[in-house]
Specification:
The chain is 46% helix and 16% strand. The chain has 16 helices and 13 strands. Strand 4 and strand 5 form a beta hairpin. Helix 4 packs antiparallel against helix 5. The protein is flat and about 85 Å long. The protein starts with 7 loop residues before the first strand and ends in a 7-residue tail after the last helix.
Length: 462
């Protein structure tokens, strides 16, 4: 089992060819390892090098004396580091072989390979950041748009953490008042007014309810809105994908059934990440491969947040069209009428009446007409559904949402106990539960299994 006091090392830049690659070392043996493998060009010992200053030199294999690479090395002295431990970063050339060779030498001198996210985990365990800030690190890495990046940066700066701590302080004040009256009933402490406590708890619940309303928007800003392009074969789904992406990502032919598999890409619509999914045309088929594609399209539909339902304006409604209309009747739909550059044979009124109140956009995917109107419609319906997507305090993870829901339920139980005049010990227990549930978000009250699960999702070297 790995020890949290071990010195750890990993390659922190993506593997492959590049200008530079960074090998990161953290732990109490970092400086010793650097002394043993780094030979500065200046006439200076590694132990005498100033922290936060880059030094040019060579990485040497101590066993053979072989020069491995010319590098820049930086030392960072605890506690003023990312992990609050002594750290070393070796900036080597970015080749796969050279980075792995340097890492191998570092490991041979006593370090071990870092687990996924272990550098950030140590930052959390050593008190540099809390758990929600640690999660923001991976959100920054995976941000799909500038707007999503701003939300993640705000969380890294402590926006969510500070908000949670303020609410917890209010809960703690109420709890302290209740427990003081329980523990010292004879002392000169103002008595508890159940009505006042109830009002204060209701106010706290309202705050938690308000931030919970942003949870769906926060999740979409982090993961993207899953949007599936659906329709029968040859209505122009792949052409639409290419137009939205502004590149030829999907193969387009006049042969129905060309798209056999799921194609996923992200597009940025005014800062909202949209995960757009092109699917196989839905129809009955004897082709075994196409049949699998149709099945995958239907599976994708189940999990989609929004559907771009496509029709061919140059043809009358077919059986497949009507079957698909029935499939998506309860979904969040934008109707897209394609091929309006051709003579119109589609009964558009029938389509519109089947989706009352839903946007209907007329386009020519091939000629890229109406695409900007479609992008505007997507943005409009998303923001109407989610409410304003701002860069303030937002809930971005299911874990956070569940913790807040649990806290709200605990406060509801406390209210109920007050109304029924149940002993104050029960009220105190429920209020404390609410306090602990919110502590799970920042890591002030969280199990080791949760911490482990969070950092397992990180990349190695971060």
């Amino acid at each position: 089992m790995n020890d949290e006091k071990d010195t750890i090392a990993a390659i922190s830049t993506p593997l492959g060819e590049g200008g530079i690659g960074i090998i990161r070392i953290s732990g109490e043996d970092s400086f010793r390892i650097a002394d043993e493998i780094f030979q500065p060009k200046k006439n200076i010992k590694t132990s005498e090098m100033k922290p936060r200053t880059m030094y040019l030199g060579n990485i040497i294999d101590p066993e053979s004396g072989e020069v491995i690479d010319e590098v820049l090395l930086v030392k960072y002295k605890a506690p003023y580091t990312y992990t609050r431990e002594d750290m070393v970063e070796i900036n080597s050339h970015g080749g796969f072989v050279v980075q792995n060779r340097i890492l191998e030498i570092v490991l041979n001198r006593g370090a071990r390979v870092a687990e996924p996210g272990e550098f950030t985990k140590r930052a959390f365990l050593n008190g540099r950041i809390d758990l929600s800030q640690a999660e923001a690190v991976i959100d920054i890495i995976r941000a799909k748009t500038d707007r999503a990046l701003k939300i993640a940066l705000n969380q890294l700066k402590g926006g969510l953490s500070n908000w949670i701590r303020e609410v917890r302080q209010e809960i703690l004040r109420i709890l302290a008042h209740i427990e003081a009256n329980i523990d010292f009933p004879e002392d000169d402490i103002p008595g508890i007014d159940p009505k006042t406590i109830t009002v204060e708890i209701k106010s706290l619940r309202a705050k938690l309810d308000d931030i919970l309303k942003k949870a769906k928007a926060g999740k979409i800003m982090r993961e993207g809105l899953s949007t599936v392009i659906l329709g029968r074969p040859n209505v122009g789904k792949s052409s639409l994908l290419n137009s939205l992406l502004r590149e030829k990502r999907a193969i387009v032919t006049e042969i129905p059934g060309t798209t056999r598999d799921i194609i996923e890409e992200y597009i940025n619509i005014k800062g909202i990440p949209i995960k757009i999914v092109d699917t196989a045309g839905i129809r009955e088929t004897l082709d075994a491969v196409e049949k699998i594609g149709v099945e995958r399209a239907l599976e994708t539909l189940e999990n989609a947040d929004m559907v771009l339902l496509m029709f061919d304006a140059s043809e009358e409604l077919k059986k497949e069209d009507r079957e698909i209309m029935e499939l998506v009747k309860d979904k969040f739909v934008i109707v897209v009428i394609n091929k309006v550059d051709l003579p119109v044979k589609l009964n558009i009124e029938e389509v519109v009446s089947a989706f009352p109140g839903k946007p209907v956009i007329r386009i020519s995917a091939l000629q890229e007409k109406g695409i900007e109107e479609l992008r505007e419609a997507i943005y409009r319906v998303v923001t109407e559904e989610l409410g304003p997507v701002d860069e303030g305090v937002m809930i971005t993870r299911a874990r956070h949402s569940q913790a807040i829901r649990n806290a709200i339920e605990a406060l509801k139980r406390a209210e109920s106990a007050l109304e029924k005049e149940i002993p104050m010990e029960v009220v105190a227990m429920e209020v404390r539960e609410a306090l602990d549930f919110l502590g799970e978000i920042t890591g002030d009250a969280v199990g080791e299994d949760v911490v482990k699960a969070i950092f397992e999702n990180f990349c190695i070297g971060k």
